[in-house]
């Protein structure tokens, strides 16, 4: 196992570990944190959420498989030193974004649109700078892993996951605009989407 594989395994384990830890803590408080493809929502939104869930699950599995095996077969190119450095920084910043976002959301956090529970509009912490820091964290981690272990399969799956993340953001922003009205519009005007 080389330094690139070890780095990717560390990034993946810390990132997904933080995500799963949040799910466990929410579950212990009686909150169902993963609402992708569930609940009373439009069929196209439910379908989008199911696609996102499938793509991110598949990508996570493939990321671990690529990190644990010889990347030479499907490698786009050998990992250069600059790719390792930039990828590692992106992965670490992605972890930081995720942790700060989950911390700021507290029990308001959900994966997917939750029409069953009324939550508040979080505008504090990292949400003062980005309306979607969880997705930014995922994007940074995905791109960091791809830079460290450039692999054709990861290129395709990362691209698909990033497109689906953007589409999910659009769905969620529509819902939030309906749910919070002018408060959300004001928030959108002063805070970047990403």
Structure description:
This protein is mostly helical and 194 residues long. It has a single domain (3-190), classed as Four Helix Bundle (Hemerythrin (Met), subunit A), CATH 1.20.120. It is 68% helix and 0% strand. Helix 1 runs antiparallel to helix 4 and helix 2 (43-68) packs antiparallel against helix 5 (152-180). The radius of gyration is 17 Å and the shape is elongated. The chain starts with a helix and ends with a helix. The relative contact order is 0.17. InterPro entries: Phopholipid_MeTrfase (IPR007318). Its main location: membrane. This is Isoprenylcysteine carboxylmethyltransferase family protein. GO terms for molecular function: transferase activity. Pfam families: PEMT.
- Enumerate the spans where pLDDT stays under 50 for 5 or more consecutive residues: none
Distance between the termini: 35 Å
What overall form do the CA principal axes indicate?
elongated
Determine the strand fraction and express it as a percent band: under 5%
Query: What is the average of the pLDDT values?
Result: 91
* CATH class category label: Mainly Alpha
Q: Could you please say which CATH topology applies here?
A: Four Helix Bundle (Hemerythrin (Met), subunit A)
Query: What structural class results from the helix and strand content?
Result: mainly alpha
Query: In angstroms, what is the radius of gyration?
Result: 17 Å
The major sheet is characterized as: none
Order of helices and strands: HHHHHH
Number of helical segments with 4 or more residues: 6
CATH architecture descriptor: Up-down Bundle
Overall strand count: 0
Helix content percent band: 55-70%
| Number of individual domains | 1
Transmembrane segments: 6-25, 52-69, 81-100, 134-164
Organism: Candidatus Tidjanibacter faecipullorum
Keywords: Membrane, Transmembrane, Transmembrane helix
Protein name: Isoprenylcysteine carboxylmethyltransferase family protein
